[in-house]
Amino acid sequence: MAALDFAFWDVLPHTSTGTAIADDYNAHIRLAQRLEALGWHSYFVIEHQNAPQGVSAPSVYLTAVARETSKLRLGAMMWQLPFYHPLRLAQEVAMLDQLSRGRVEFGTGIGVHEHEFIRWGVDYYQRAAISEEVLQVVKMAWTQDEVTFDGKYFHFDEALPHPKPYQQPYPPIWAAVHSDTSVEFAARNNYHVAKNLDTDEVVAGKFALYRRVWGESGHAGPIPRMFLMRTVHVAPTDEQAHLEARDYVAAGAERVGGGPIAQTRIGWGSHTRGMGADSERADNKARGQTMATAARDYQFNVDNGLAIVGSPSTVIRKLQEGQERIGYNVFCTNHQIGRMPRDLVDRSIELFGREVIPAFAGVPA
Questions:
Q1: CB burial class (10 A; 0-12, 13-18, 19+) of residue 99?
Q2: 72 and 42 in contact (C-beta within 8 Å)?
């Protein structure tokens, strides 16, 4: 059995209003404390802007989590780089790293939903180029006393960023990827790599591409980590787990093209798939077909690894098989499945923490 760390994917939906939002945040912070006690390695949120779920200010929220935990590593998967002033981002994340005493995992990405960019006046089709400059400046701010930079999108003259991160030279940098281009970018730059949404077969191919390009790039040291997020539901028996999960895995989750965003003037942007002209790219069309099938077919999710459902022993076996076939060494669990009742979610988390995680404890790397 290979070494495996467990991350947790926490989704904060924007369903409350007024002071009730504060109660929601406190509930999720308490959850993070429980995850730490149960043995999770890391805790991740996702940034979305102009959206009904996700965290709009991840650095602020994660600072609150950091102050109520002591070991749990913290991050966003991802901070949406095109929406940031790079020096502000560098300083915010460095301060979070200081306040958490070196527990930040810096997840980066360019964003996929066109409407988020339209609403903020950011050029959707320049997002990769903007992100590349943002990340370049962030790393300069973390490693240099002054930053002078003359790029296409950003210009700085002897900027004096502070603080520097607690972790030296800086926190682990993750690239949240989908396309082959983004996989190759992560490998060439020696970044850790994170995947979700695609079937196990597709993810295995992406990770194989990453390993090949990383090897060809001549990096020194061990290969970076590979992260896979999946829907997970655990119950005492396989039969009970499937009975509890069946009504929620393929239903209840808001899909691109629908929901409250579709009722707004801008909607999801210029294409119902939400990715503008990029929606017609072959890999995005294939992923869209996968998601459409997953939204209506429970067994498709189970058979293709999009959902891992079963008793603790079954889940352990599936994780071991996935490690061997796909090659991940960070497995991220998403237990909040659509509108699944909170008591079922909490029981699944407890069972995973008490019976699945210990099966991988102490395994040599």
A1: middle
A2: yes
Q: What are phi and psi of 346, to 5 degrees?
A: -65, -40
Residue 144 has what DSSP assignment? -
Euclidean distance between CA atoms 157 and 152, whole angstroms? 14
Q: What is the largest CA-CA distance in the chain?
A: 63
> If you ran DSSP here, which 8-state letter would residue 126 be given?
G
209 touches 142 (CB < 8 A):
no
The residues facing 194 across adjacent strands are 176, 227
Show the beta-strand stretches assigned E in the chain: 5-9, 42-45, 73-80, 104-109, 147-150, 155-159, 173-176, 192-195, 226-234, 307-310, 330-334
Give residue 128's pLDDT.
Answer: 96
Best CA proximity match to 241, nearest among 232, 233, 249: 233
Model pTM score: 0.95
Distances (CA, A) of 164 to 63, 94, 102, 221: 16, 6, 11, 24
Q: How far is CA 38 from CA 47, 67, 235, 358, in A?
A: 25, 18, 16, 9
171 token code pair: 């926190």
How far is residue 250 from each of residues 53, 234, 265, 294, 318, measured CA to CA in Å? 18, 16, 28, 6, 20
pLDDT tens per residue across span 170-220: 999 999 999 999 999 999 999 999 999 899 999 999 999 999 999 999 999
Provide the token pair at 15: 């369903």
Q: State phi, psi for 356 to the nearest 5 degrees.
A: -90, -50
CB of 49 within 8 A of CB of 80? yes
Q: Hey, CA dihedral for 316, 317, 323, 328, is it positive or negative? A: negative
The pLDDT score that the predictor gives to residue 288 is: 85
Residues 6 or more apart whose Cβ sits within 8 Å of residue 238: 309, 310, 311, 314
Structure tokens at 187: 């490998």
Contact (CB, 8 A) for 260 and 220: no
Please name the helix (run of DSSP H) or strand (run of DSSP E) that holds residue 37, with its range, or none: helix 20-38
